[in-house]
Each structure stands twice: as structure tokens, then as C-alpha cells.
Design a protein that fits this description.
Chain A folds into 2 domains: 183 residues; 156 residues, Protein Transport Mog1p, Chain A. Helix content of chain A is 45%, strand content 20%. Chain A has 9 helices and 11 strands. An 8-stranded antiparallel β-sheet of chain A has the order 1-4-5-6-10-9-8-7, sandwiched between helices. In chain A, a hairpin with a 6-residue loop joins strand 7 and strand 8. The termini of chain A are far apart. The termini of chain B are far apart. In chain B, 23% of the residues lie in helices and 37% in strands. In chain B, the strands form 9 sheets. An 8-stranded mixed β-sheet of chain B has the order 5-4-9-2-1-11-14-13, with no helix packed on it. In chain B, strands 26-27-25-24-30-34-33-32 form an 8-stranded mixed β-sheet. The chains are: A alpha+beta, B alpha+beta.
């Protein structure tokens, strides 16, 4: 049984009064919370279409349900649509002698739009991962609250034919949850817990990193960098590993030793980047470091990681102890990427011998 | 009375003949006692190295004669030095100077003295190809020299100043490339001839008096030798001369050249009219006069007495078609004057590259003369002894040399030096074949001084010899296993570029079924970088500028898809630059353009190592690597 299967034919008012509606029986709000949270809000669009359709039964088809599919995803749409829904719900409440929505509804709207806006912005600007989970929690809470209100209305409707629900979720919802729960936990672990659990040493902006017995130095030009355990970003063969303020932003320093040359390392690096993704556009340049006669090899490859822009950078220098390379990777949402790109490149370019 | 006049006249004529009598054997026999009084033999013999034990120079100057007495004692502790210094040479002008040997002896290791005889001394004409002069050389061989032995030479030169064409000036070096035990210099003069004296040796201690100077130095260490230095430029010394300013040198040279210019220039004018017609353009006139003076006047120096520094009359040079640098320069200036170009001589010392170590003005500082003039607000200088360099360029061997423009109020300068003396372009078309081999077609285009150098190399070579020369240089630089087909063009005209074309095929060396991993060294650029290394270690060095543009065009078959092009290069430094950029052109060919620019510069000693490291860095980047995926 689906809520869209038995849309009643258009009836005149008299007929309608005597008709019962095939609406869903109330589902506990916490189940809606779980569904919303673990499906990364995807289920909400379907949920709202169904709820609006139910409202339509009472409101003489005031709304076009499929249009509401997009409302959960865009905070601007919510600002216009949700108050209309509230008004209609209040009207239905009044018609059915149910207590109307209190002023708390505006608070709920605020929470919903803010959390939606936050999730919207996170497509463009990379924000701390844990805040994204907070926003998701608030958003799910808002949906659960709305569900609670819908439940309340349904229970008190004077004329409805509520079918008893025999299951917690429908089949497709179970499927989404089956995929969503482990995925959400995994993402939560890697993006939120791992950075917290991994031992790291914070590096302040403009700090010049010099290590005992290492022949190189470089200056970190951004906030939010930290030195992390070897193996975090490499296979463990690196000398130094740094994590940036963004999730996909790191530097790794490799020692290539005395048996390699700048040329062999930089050509190899460019080849391996292209092997990984042949659509990357690479430039390879030899320059003197500042006014010295120390030749440096710089490889920059730009491309895309899924839909986000990405950048690989490799600067190789010759030292008394052989060839050293700083290898960096940056990928993020478009605005954040360009916000960090220049300092990221400048940090790598500043890699030099002591 | 007449008899008295005759006697006086005869005596005054005879006096020089007594002064300039035949140079003979040493007048004195050196005795062991005499030698031991001057040299502490046991003390000297403690030295492990050969050295100049004593150098004593005494000048007596008066208004007519300068008498120079020189005494030199050498100690020898190794055979190489005996080979090198076992003979001495005294140069003198037979018309103005007389040499007298006072003492010439070899001291054997056991202290026995061997006084040189007539057989040990030879007087010869100064032997320079195509030069006739009044200069003689007295060669003194010291027989029986052995380890632990000494050579002693003492002589006197008397110079008649009235007969001398050049001004009188001398330089003495307390420090040379061997250790010096004792250095003494004294000079006395009359009130009529007070010399100008310049000293810049830190070892020398001098006492000035009103009519004399006495200088000495003891235990002067050997100056450090280097591969590309000229002692005059580097070593502290003392100079004495009769001229007081550079304007004196300029006036003297002007006078010498004026005496050579045609007094009635109709002959020159007719000649130019015949060759150039009426009202030739300025550039055409320069081109003709330059080419005529350098190519049509055969080099032959007739610099006997009277023409050591004074050019022959220009009409005579024009008629005889024979001349040396000063004759050619005078002819050029005189001919240029007829078409309204005001050229002037510029004296050049072809050995000296510094003006900082010069102390006293003198014409004798120079050994060459060229002509310069203004054209289109730029100074052009032509060495008319150079038959290959176009008038728009200055011969490479006079660039950056110690020079003096014969224009009032000038001072010595280093002659202009082109920023890039050696310039050329290379275009290399390489077609990779389907069998993994390649065909290469290369064109090198040499302009300016480099083309002149090639023309000079080709001069006098038969066709086969020239072919061999070109093949050898190609194989040496590009590929020694190749058998190129080479042609050269543009050798005959002074103003033409020289173009060398080579076509070479290489047998298969790429596996066409594998991914492409190709590397090629930009060979001509590498060759220029290799040739630009300074040779000195202890002294600064002048490096003549080089600029090469190289363009490789690769036609790569569809067997491979290029994935990685050669790295771009932007190596910019105060010493020069190397830049490279590669791109795919419209026809799908890979084009790699590389520019090497090493401007002319003087590298200070403190920068020599950095300069070499800079060149090392450039060398490492001259290999072009291309990667491609196999499409099969």
C-alpha cells in the first residue's frame, strides 16, 4: 500500500464529507529522525511530498505535492513554503477542533532553514566536519518535530480513514537505511572521530618548520595545520606529514635520497599523478630558489575530484643529503578551494634547503 | 775653426756609435768571491723551490739618455725551472738602444763559476710573422745549470731618447710568479727629466728624494699563477715614464697619424669616386672602405725605424696594398674622412683586460690600433686586420681590452664588449619513425662574430678539409656515432650569416610496442655551457657572452600519445638565464623552444665557484624528456 496509490477521484463537497482518506497512520517521530539522519536528509523530500498530499485531502488540493519535493533541500524555498504549510495546518486544526500550532512553529522554521542553509553552504564552502553533523542533527530534529505535529493532527482528524501501519519503514526506506547507517557511521568516524583521535601537533600560521637533522624547511602560511602521524596520508615512508584545515588538504615530505635526481623524481611524480587521473592538467617547471643557484622542480597538476576542484603539487629540492620532495594535495568545494589555493601553493613553493 | 767644427760634428756623430756598438760578450768575469759577497749561498740553498734571489734595477735619466742597469740572480731547485728559465732574452731597438752585458755566469752546485762566452750569447732579429721591425733580441743561454745552481745576469741598456719614436716608460715587478729574495730599484734624474712615478706594490718600500728614488722589497712571496691572467693586470708594480698625462699620449698619436694622412687627398677621392660613384650612402661607404682596408690591404708590417708607431702615408698603403694595423687604420680614417665620416684611432692593448692596475701614461702600453667612428649615434669600432668581421661588429679579440681613444681628454677604458658575443640559432626537426629510429635535420645559423669565426676557420681549407672539420665538430657535440651529411653556406660575404645544415638518420632504438620514454640533450646549448666555464681559480675572469636559441620540432607517430612534455625551465640569475617552453603546434608536432643567455661579464674571484655551479645547474636541465603512452 502506498499513499499515492489511491488518490480519490474528484468529488463534490457533499460526497467528500462522507469519504474517508487513505492516509498513513502516525509514525513515531524518533523513527523519522533516524530516517532523516541516516539518509543524509534524502528521505525528507519524499516524506514532505507525502505529508503535503495528506494535507491536500483536507485542503481541497491547494498544493501541488511534487513541487514540495524540492523544499527540504533549499532553505529559500522553505522560507516561502513552510509558512504556507503551517497556515494550512492551522486551518485544518481549526476545522477539526484541534489545537493549532503555537508560536514555537516559527522557532522550528528558523532552525530548519538555518540548518538547511548550513548544509547548502557546505557544498560551496568547506566547513568543519563535526558542525555538518550538528546541522544534520538539528535538521533531523526539525523534521521529527513536524512529523510529531502531523501525527497529532492525524490522530485528531474528524473524518479520516487511517490505515494502521504494520511496519516501521517501507521497503525502500529500509534499503536507504541499510546503506545509510553504516555509511553515516563511517563518515562520522573518518571525518569527525579520526581527527580527534589521531595524535597531532597544531602548527600556527607563519610557523617555519625546521626539524633536527633534516636539511629542509618551509613555512606554513595558513591556520589550521597540524603535524600528524606518519602513515596518515602516505604509506608510512614519509619524513613528515601535515594535515591541513580542510579534510582533503595535506602535505607529505619524502626523502628520495642520493640516488635520485630532481628530474627523475619530478617526471616520476607527474607520471604517477597522471596515471591516477589522466584528465589532470600538469605543468612542470624548473626554477632557481629565490636568488640562489639551487634548482627546484615544481609539478602542479589541476583537475577534479568528483565534482570538486583538486590540485596536486610537488616541489623537489637538492640537498646535501639527497633529493627531498614536498608533495601536497588539496581538494575541496569550489569557494574553499580557491580560498586556500594560493597559500597552499605558496607553502609548497617555500620548501627549501636550510 | 773649420777643423774644430768638423771634429765636434764628427764626435757628436760618433758618440752614439760608441753607445750603440756591437753587443758583445760579458765585459767582466764574475768571481766566486764577488758572488758570495752578494749572495748567501748556504741560506739560499735551504729553499726547496727555485726563486729569484736578486733583482736589482738602476735607472739614470737625463734629458738625452736613459741608462738602465739590471742584475738578476736565479736559484734553481728543480729541472722544470731550469728548462723554463735556463735562458734569458733581452729585447732592444737596435736604432735607439745599446746593450752591454756586464756579467753573465752560471754558478754550479759546488760553487764553481762558469762565465759565459761568445758562444752562449746570440743576437737575433725579433721574429714575428709578417712583421719587419728594428727590434733585436739578445738570447743568453746559461750552460751547465743544474739543481742547486744559480744563474747571474747583469746588463746595461742605454736608450737615446732623441731617436726614440715612443715615449720612455718602464715597469718593474717586485712580485712575480716565483718567490723573490731581494728586490732593489733606484732611479736618479736631472732636473730636466723628472719622471712620473707610480707605485701600487704593497711589498715595495720607497724613499723619495728630489732627484732620486730608492725602493726595495725583501722576501716577496710568489704570486699565485692562474690559467687566464695577464701579469700586468694583476700584479703590484712600479712604473716610471716620461709622459705626465694621457693627453700627451693622445697628442703624440694624433701627430703620428696626421703625418700619415694624405696632404692632397685627390688621389683618395678619385679612388672612392671610382669605386662608389657619386654620393654613396653613408652605410655603403663604410661598408666599402671597411672591406677594402681589411681585405684588399694585405697584412704586412713594415715597422722598421721610423715606422714603429708612425703609419706609412695612406697613399702609399693604398698603392702598395700592404700594411699593418696602424697603416690600415690610417687608410680607413683617411678614406672615411673623404666621405664625411670622422673616424679616429683607438689604441688597444690586446693582452690587458683591466684599467685598474695602470699607473703611468705611455704609448708603449699598447700593441695594436683600430679605427672607431660614430654612425647613427652609436660608436662602431673596426679592427682592420680582421678580414672576416663585418663593420657592424667589433672583432672579438679586441672587445673588453685596455684601450685609449685618440680624442682629446680621453682616458684609458675597456673597449666596448657586446652583451652576447657568440650568438646563433639552431632549428632541429626530428621525425620518429614507425620502426623506432629517427631522422634529424638540423640548421644552425650563426650571425655576427660567430659567423666571422667560422669564416676564419674555413679560410684556406680545402673542401674536404672543411667537410671533415664540420663533421668532426658535429660528431663531437651531437653524436659521435652518426654519419651526418653536412653543408655550409654564407662563407664568402662579410655581412652574411653562416648556415650549417646537417641531415642524420639514426637506427631504431625505441621499442614501438612499449610506452615512449625518450630523452635528448640539447647538444649545442650544452656545448656552449661547457665552453663558458671560467678557467681561473684565484683571479677574476672575463667571460664573453653567449646567446643561443634552440628549437626542436618533434614529429611523433601515432604509435604514441604524448603524456608528459619536457619540463618548462625558468632559470633566471644575475649570471644569465635558461628558459624552455614546450607546446603542441597546430599540426600536432611537439615544439620545444630553449634559450640560453649568458651575458658578457667579469666574474670576480669570489664568484667563480658560484658561476661554475650556476653552469652546472644549467647543464643538468638541458636534457629533454618526453613520455607517451603506446596506442597499440
Amino acid at each position: 500500500m502506498t499513499e499515492t496509490a489511491n488518490i480519490p477521484p474528484t468529488l463534490n463537497e457533499e460526497e467528500q464529507i462522507n469519504t474517508t482518506y487513505p492516509i498513513y497512520a502516525p509514525r513515531p517521530a524518533f523513527l523519522e529522525f533516524i530516517l532523516t539522519f541516516f539518509t543524509f536528509t534524502i528521505s525528507t523530500s519524499f516524506w514532505l511530498v507525502a505529508r503535503v498530499r495528506e494535507v491536500n485531502y483536507q485542503s481541497k488540493d491547494k498544493f501541488t505535492p511534487w513541487l514540495w519535493f524540492f523544499v527540504p533541500s533549499f532553505f529559500l524555498a522553505q522560507l516561502f513554503a513552510i509558512p504556507k504549510l503551517f497556515r494550512e495546518m492551522d486551518l485544518i486544526s481549526k476545522n477539526n477542533n484541534i489545537q493549532s500550532l503555537g508560536t514555537w512553529k516559527w522557532g522550528l522554521l528558523l532552525l530548519l532553514t538555518v540548518s538547511t542553509a548550513y548544509i547548502n553552504i557546505s557544498d560551496k564552502i568547506e566547513l568543519p566536519q563535526w558542525t555538518w553533523f550538528i546541522a544534520l542533527t538539528i535538521y533531523s530534529f526539525c523534521i521529527a518535530t513536524l512529523q510529531h505535529r502531523f501525527n497529532h493532527n492525524k490522530k485528531n482528524l474528524e473524518s479520516s480513514n487511517q490505515r494502521e501501519i504494520k511496519y516501521l519503514y517501507k521497503a525502500w526506506e529500509w534499503l536507504l537505511l541499510l546503506i545509510g547507517i553504516p555509511l553515516t557511521l563511517f563518515v562520522f568516524y573518518t571525518l569527525v572521530l579520526t581527527p580527534i583521535l589521531t595524535s597531532s601537533k597544531e602548527i600556527l600560521k607563519d610557523t617555519t618548520l625546521i626539524y633536527p637533522e633534516q636539511p629542509f624547511q618551509f613555512t606554513i602560511l595558513d591556520d589550521g595545520w597540524s603535524e600528524v602521524e606518519l602513515g596518515t596520508h602516505s604509506d608510512g615512508t614519509a619524513e613528515i606529514e601535515l594535515s591541513g584545515p580542510l579534510n582533503n588538504m595535506h602535505f607529505i615530505v619524502f626523502k628520495h635520497g642520493l640516488n635520485n635526481s630532481l628530474n627523475s623524481v619530478s617526471y616520476w611524480r607527474q607520471s604517477t599523478i597522471l596515471e591516477e587521473n589522466s584528465t589532470n592538467k600538469c605543468t612542470q617547471v624548473r626554477e632557481f630558489h629565490e636568488r640562489t643557484i639551487d634548482v627546484t622542480a615544481l609539478v602542479i597538476c589541476e583537475g577534479k575530484s568528483l565534482i570538486d576542484p583538486s590540485l596536486y603539487i610537488s616541489k623537489t629540492i637538492q640537498t646535501d643529503q639527497g633529493v627531498y620532495e614536498i608533495f601536497g594535495y588539496l581538494s575541496s568545494t569550489k569557494i574553499t578551494f580557491y580560498e586556500h589555493k594560493s597559500n597552499f601553493i605558496a607553502t609548497a613553493k617555500g620548501f627549501k634547503t636550510i | 775653426m773649420k777643423i774644430i767644427i768638423l771634429i765636434v760634428t764628427t764626435l757628436s756623430w760618433l758618440y752614439p756609435s760608441t753607445v750603440f756598438s756591437k753587443n758583445g760578450v760579458p765585459q767582466n768575469n764574475l768571481s766566486r768571491i764577488q758572488f758570495e759577497q752578494e749572495v748567501n749561498i748556504n741560506e739560499v740553498k735551504k729553499s726547496a723551490e727555485s726563486y729569484r734571489v736578486l733583482r736589482e734595477v738602476n735607472y739614470k735619466l737625463d734629458s738625452r739618455y736613459v741608462t738602465t742597469r739590471v742584475k738578476t740572480v736565479w736559484y734553481f731547485s728543480n729541472l722544470n725551472d731550469i728548462q723554463e728559465l735556463g735562458q734569458s732574452s733581452i729585447s732592444f731597438d737596435k736604432n735607439t738602444q745599446k746593450v752591454s752585458l756586464i756579467n753573465a755566469a752560471t754558478i754550479l752546485p759546488d760553487g764553481e763559476i762558469y762565465n759565459l762566452t761568445f758562444d752562449d750569447v746570440k743576437e737575433i732579429d725579433s721574429n714575428t710573422y709578417n712583421v719587419f721591425s728594428s727590434w733585436q733580441e739578445l738570447l743568453i743561454n746559461f750552460p751547465k745549470l743544474d739543481l742547486g745552481g744559480f744563474s747571474v745576469l747583469e746588463y746595461e741598456i742605454t736608450t737615446d731618447l732623441q731617436k726614440k719614436e715612443l715615449d720612455w716608460s718602464v715597469s718593474q715587478f717586485p712580485q712575480i710568479f716565483y718567490k723573490t729574495g731581494q728586490f732593489k730599484l733606484s732611479a736618479t734624474w736631472t732636473n730636466e727629466f723628472k719622471p712620473k712615478i707610480g707605485i701600487n706594490s704593497s711589498f715595495l718600500k720607497c724613499e723619495d728624494h728630489s732627484n732620486s728614488i730608492v725602493c726595495s722589497a725583501k722576501s716577496v712571496p710568489a704570486a699565485i699563477m692562474d690559467k687566464n691572467i695577464y701579469g700586468y693586470d694583476e700584479l703590484g708594480h712600479i712604473e716610471l715614464g716620461e709622459l705626465t698625462s694621457w693627453d700627451d699620449v693622445i697628442s703624440l698619436t694624433m701627430k703620428n697619424f696626421k703625418s700619415a694622412y694624405s696632404s692632397s687627398p685627390k688621389h683618395l677621392q678619385d679612388f672612392l669616386k671610382h669605386e662608389l660613384g657619386e654620393n654613396p650612402s653613408r652605410a655603403k661607404a663604410i661598408d666599402f672602405i671597411h672591406q677594402f682596408s681589411s681585405r684588399n690591404i694585405r697584412y704586412l708590417s713594415k715597422s722598421e725605424h721610423g715606422h714603429a708607431v708612425i703609419p706609412h702615408k695612406t697613399e702609399k698603403t693604398l698603392d702598395s696594398k700592404i700594411g699593418d694595423c696602424k697603416d690600415k687604420t690610417a687608410l680607413f680614417i683617411d678614406l672615411a674622412k673623404q666621405v664625411g665620416i670622422k673616424a679616429y684611432p683607438v689604441l688597444v692593448s690586446t693582452n690587458r683586460q683591466k684599467i685598474t692596475n695602470d699607473l703611468v701614461p705611455s704609448l708603449s702600453k699598447f700593441n695594436h690600433v683600430i679605427a672607431c667612428y660614430m654612425h647613427n649615434n652609436k660608436e662602431f669600432c673596426s679592427d682592420l686586420t680582421d678580414t672576416e668581421t663585418h663593420w657592424k661588429n667589433t672583432s672579438s679579440w679586441v672587445q673588453n681590452k685596455f684601450s685609449l681613444r685618440i680624442i682629446p681628454n680621453n682616458k684609458p677604458q675597456l673597449l666596448m664588449s657586446e652583451r652576447y658575443r657568440w650568438k646563433y640559432d639552431v632549428v632541429t626537426n626530428i621525425k620518429l619513425n614507425n620502426d623506432g629510429g629517427q631522422e634529424e635535420k638540423q640548421t644552425r645559423t650563426y650571425g655576427n662574430l660567430y659567423s666571422a669565426w667560422f669564416k676564419e676557420q674555413a679560410n684556406g681549407k680545402k673542401k674536404e678539409e672543411l667537410q671533415r672539420f664540420l663533421t668532426d665538430s658535429y660528431q663531437e657535440v651531437v653524436a659521435n656515432q652518426s654519419a651526418p651529411s653536412i653543408s655550409i653556406s654564407g662563407l664568402n660575404q662579410m655581412n652574411s650569416n653562416v648556415e650549417i645544415q646537417s641531415i642524420t638518420s639514426f637506427k631504431p632504438f625505441q621499442d614501438t610496442k612499449e610506452n615512449l620514454d625518450y630523452s635528448e640533450v640539447d647538444a649545442w646549448l650544452l656545448n656552449e655551457v661547457k665552453n663558458s666555464y671560467p678557467t681561473n681559480q684565484f683571479y677574476g675572469e672575463y667571460i664573453a657572452g653567449t646567446s643561443v636559441n634552440s628549437r626542436y620540432i618533434y614529429d611523433i607517430p601515432k604509435l604514441w600519445q604524448i603524456t608528459v612534455k619536457p619540463a618548462d625551465i625558468q632559470l633566471n640569475h644575475k649570471f644569465g638565464s635558461l628558459s624552455r617552453h614546450s607546446s603542441i603546434d597546430k599540426s600536432g608536432k611537439l615544439v620545444i623552444e630553449t634559450s640560453l643567455n649568458l651575458p658578457s661579464t667579469y666574474i670576480e674571484q669570489s664568484d667563480l665557484e658560484s658561476y661554475s655551479l650556476f653552469l652546472d645547474a644549467l647543464r643538468q636541465e638541458l636534457t629533454m624528456r618526453i613520455f607517451g603512452n603506446s596506442t597499440s
